[in-house]
């Protein structure tokens, strides 16, 4: 069990670090796309910690909808992840082309 707890703590540490970065960047003059990136990664890493705690495999994806779907398949989830589909799709700007692209990562 300690290996599972260590894994969960590792994911939550990463999530907390990303959340701290998102808050610092958002409270400053940006860049706000970087704050959004870190906020999404914070959610992703915290969800990976939940899946690890539940003994579920951790998918190789950045798609929050997929994490919500996996979590909803749990026999007794502690709390549904109702809002995840609302935050996965986002607009980004391609650094090379300088034009908006739609992305689900």
Helix and strand pattern: HHHHEE
Please identify the oligomeric state.
single chain
Main pleated sheet:
2 strands, antiparallel
Order the strands across the largest sheet as they lie in space: 1-2
Number of strands: 2
Low-pLDDT windows of residues = 83-105
| Sheet/helix structural class | mainly alpha
Terminal CA distance? 31 Å
**Number of helical elements:** 4
Q: How confident is the prediction overall: mean pLDDT? A: 77
Strand-residue proportion: 5-15%
Radius of gyration: 15 Å
How many domains make up the coordinates? 1
Shape: globular
What's the helical proportion of residues?
55-70%
Question: How would you characterize this protein structure?
Answer:
This protein has 105 residues and is mainly alpha-helical. The protein has one domain (2-103). It is 58% helix and 8% strand. It has four helices and two strands. The chain has helices spanning 2-27, 32-53, 64-72, 84-87, and strands spanning 90-93, 100-103. The chain has a two-stranded antiparallel sheet with strand order 1-2. A hairpin with a 6-residue loop joins β1 (90-93) and β2 (100-103). α2 packs parallel to α3 (64-72). The longest helix has 26 residues, at 2-27. It is globular and about 40 Å long.
């Amino acid at each position: 069990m300690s290996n599972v707890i260590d894994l969960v703590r590792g994911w939550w540490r990463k999530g907390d670090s990303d959340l701290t970065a998102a808050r610092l960047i958002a409270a400053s003059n940006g860049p706000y796309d970087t704050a959004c990136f870190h906020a999404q990664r914070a959610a992703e890493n915290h969800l990976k910690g939940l899946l690890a705690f539940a003994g579920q495999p951790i998918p190789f994806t950045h798609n929050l909808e997929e994490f919500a779907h996996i979590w909803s398949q749990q026999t007794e989830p502690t709390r549904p992840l109702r809002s995840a589909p609302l935050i996965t799709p986002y607009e980004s700007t391609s650094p090379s082309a300088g034009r908006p692209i739609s992305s689900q990562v």
